[in-house]
Amino acid sequence: MAGRLIDTDPELAFQHALAASRRGGRLAAVREAVALTAYAAGEFGDALREFRTHRRISGSNEYLAMMADCERGLGRPDRALDLVRSEEAAGLDNAGKVDIAIVASGARMDMEQYDAAVSALEIPQLDKNRAFSYSPRLFRAYADALELAGRGNEAEPWRRQALLAESVLGVGAFAEPEIMDLGEDDEPAGKPRFRRDSDSDGDSTGPDAGTGEDRSGNYAERVETEANPADVDVDAEEDDALPSDERESLLGAEETESDSEDEDARSSADSND
Fold it and tell me: Quick one: what percent of the chain has pLDDT higher than 70?
């Protein structure tokens, strides 16, 4: 939460970081968050204390420039210069050396030592022909120092050089905007799937084979086949229309009638003789 609010509401971010420090105050990451949010909120006393705690826990000097700037914020530019001249500052990487030089220049400005402020920025990293991630802010700081020193004609080329460095690096005003897609992409329509006709395939051996029921999981349009009335065995239905006992009684009556007809035929034949 503190990381999301630090740019929009640094004071609220600081309060969130303080709340986190009450639970995990011995973690370097927590003390780092408190220090950064306090620095962004202008609480330089709290920020300096937290930066020192973070350095003691982690052993890192990466925030040495911010510590020196906190001394400036507390109205102590001389202490800021002491940090600039410390042994820890000599071991910083190029970006760290640029940041500590900018703070040193600002401390000299606070002390109204404008020429010294210009000299503090004349470091090996001040190369107008090469652009690094720290070059735009170093060029602008140098231009500001030159203008305060009464060398405004030399300041403008450095400001143009800062813009050129940003365009080359693709940062600042030349950074590509973040594009956020607020809608959902439509899923491409899949290929149609068709039900396999299990009745026509002779190799269907499952328990549902021949039943006509589709259990394949295909949910395409199903075609139901209706039985043809002409294919129905009417005789079979008529045979099954009566119970077995009634059928037997009817068959017995038919046999009796047949026997009577035979006897009448024999009697007629005897009389003729």
Answer: 59
